[in-house]
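From the shared-data thread, chain only:
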Amino acid sequence: MRVVYMDYAASTPVRPEVAEAMNQAMLETWGNPSSPHRFGREARKLVDDARRKVADLVGAAPREVVFTSGGTEADNLAIAGTLLARRDRGRHLVTSAVEHHAVLGTCEYLARAGLAEVTILPVDAYGRVDPDTLAAAVRPDTVLVSVMLANNEVGTIQPIAELARVCREREVPFHTDAVQAVGTIPVNVRELGVDLLSLAAHKFYGPQGAGALVVRRGHRLEPLLHGGSHERQRRAGTEGVPAIVGLGKAAELAAVELEAYGAHARAMRDRLLDGVFGRIADVRLNGHPTSRLPNHAHLSFRGVDGEALLLKLDLLGIACSAGSACAAGAPEPSHVLRALGVEPEWAGGSVRLTVGRPTTAEDVDYVVDCLADTVARLRGGLPAAAGRVRP
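Structure, as tokens:
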């Protein structure tokens, strides 16, 4: 049986070059980067080299990069750390209805704890925040706005530069969760105009458990972890050198190959969409039709049980993700699809298919064949004319 991985938005395989660099760091450089002796200095050099590579990938200065355990910690540090540092200015947070749970969950926790008031912005049918809506939501006591760069579920890219400009004119810091975007599309913190940016290594062929928060120089940030002066007093704890080395190597490779990767991903994704819309009726592409990640396709099949579809695809060797979650045995549309206004008859039959560096045309054709056959069987095997439906 053929095995095809189509869940690169969830996690990517570690590249051999990355694994080799990490293995070498584990075996040869075991010193504490904070130690003043030779072994510590060798470890510090590896950390500093990785910091520079990450900074180069996103157009930042090395001193602005704070290493974390991943995107979730970076989001938590950005939001809670800014709120705590600016509590003399207010406690109002603004975010969007389609954010990752790492952002929404942090905001909800801070609100439950009585530390923050949260405004959640609506989005349009494609999942984008309107700059005018943001402008109307910002208040004198707003201390941070957080809107993701690219949506992890439907792939929509937000107009971050415009949104950040709204905040800059009002002297309000802006954070973007760029975990799904970094390493897939060009990302430059200066061009975006953001104050804080989160990223994670395992989204671009680096190790799980390694990430970073880019903090614009001069931005006040209260650390969430205490007990040391590591990371310029922004995150206490001995740096995990091998993971950081892996993140740095993955960033270095991504920077060099970004254009070629984007072209390959777009070609494979478009082949997938052409095949699906050419052979399956009553299917729609969720998210923005053009302002979207090049490797990303989120599809809804009307009248199909999404959980059953995923299970059958898995039995056929295809790994992908659901566009809906199940609670107590009853399918519930995800918060992203609800925010987009996707009707239940469509939302319940949603899947996310994402391609990657190893994806081949043969992989895509196999997935299309399996999708066409499985959807037909789940619908009772009735033939129908194929066609595209847009939100």
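Residues 241-279 form the longest helix (39 residues).
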